[in-house]
Write a structure and sequence with these properties.
The protein is about 50% helix and about 0% strand. It is mainly alpha-helical.
């Protein structure tokens, strides 16, 4: 059985340039990726979906100026809308490959089980007629074949739409929280009698939140009232 030779790891992209575009195109569409890329990007054009963009553009996006050349340079800058589309397409491609890899691993185990059952029942001529089945080799060969295959399945980019938030519940009416007003009783307390000490008035209004004055405070208030009465008498 032929063994799969693992390819070298792709270098990390240094910038959004023609080299990065080439790496993305090869992963999505294989070695001949430039013309298929024009059709792949057509539905995502910002001016409206179309069957394909100009097939010459992927060639011109990867052009680099030749130093000292007298020929006109026909290269074009890569539009900014291309990179988000490629990023999403690569993500979808990775999900598809992962799903296919799981199916390949499951099928490998099922076939291996059938082969073992055939050996036990005598359905196979012998182990020499069966290829050696190793999960890493089968999986790696399948992944290599899937990566080299052209990517022609259309992909719809997901659109994130948040559900509208539910309106908050209506606040209860004010009178439902004020039983005194709901019953029609008086809304203001009766005015205190003239000469009522301030602490007595506040205690009635605040329902005992304020502590009563001490004996020393009461004594000082009495002396202050006496001095005020003497000064008025003079």
């Amino acid at each position: 059985m032929a063994r799969y030779t693992r390819r070298t790891r792709l270098p990390e992209p240094e910038a959004l340039d023609g080299r990065t575009l080439e790496m993305a195109g090869r992963l999505l569409l294989g070695p001949e990726w430039k013309r298929p890329l024009a059709k792949l990007l057509g539905p995502f054009h910002p001016d409206g979906p179309r069957e394909t963009i100009d097939p010459r553009l992927p060639f011109r996006w990867t052009m680099e100026p030749t130093p000292g050349s007298s020929k006109p340079f026909n290269g074009r800058p890569i539009p900014g809308w291309v990179w988000p589309v490629l990023s999403e397409l690569l993500h979808q491609r990775a999900l598809d490959l992962a799903a296919d890899a799981r199916d390949a691993q499951r099928l490998h185990l099922e076939i291996g089980g059938l082969v073992r059952d055939g050996k036990k029942s005598g359905g196979c001529d012998g182990p020499q007629d069966l290829p050696r089945l190793h999960a890493p080799e089968i999986l790696a060969a399948w992944v290599a074949k899937a990566q080299a295959a052209p990517f022609i399945r259309p992909i719809d980019l997901p659109t994130v739409r948040r559900a509208p938030a539910e309106p908050p519940p209506p606040a209860p009416p004010l009178f439902d929280r004020l039983p005194i007003q709901r019953k029609g009783e008086r809304q203001r307390p009766a005015p205190p009698a003239p000469g009522t000490p301030l602490h007595v008035v506040l205690t009635e209004h605040l329902a005992g939140v304020i502590s009563p004055p001490s004996a020393l405070s009461l004594k000082r208030m009495e002396r202050r009232a006496e001095r005020q009465a003497k000064s008025k008498a003079k």
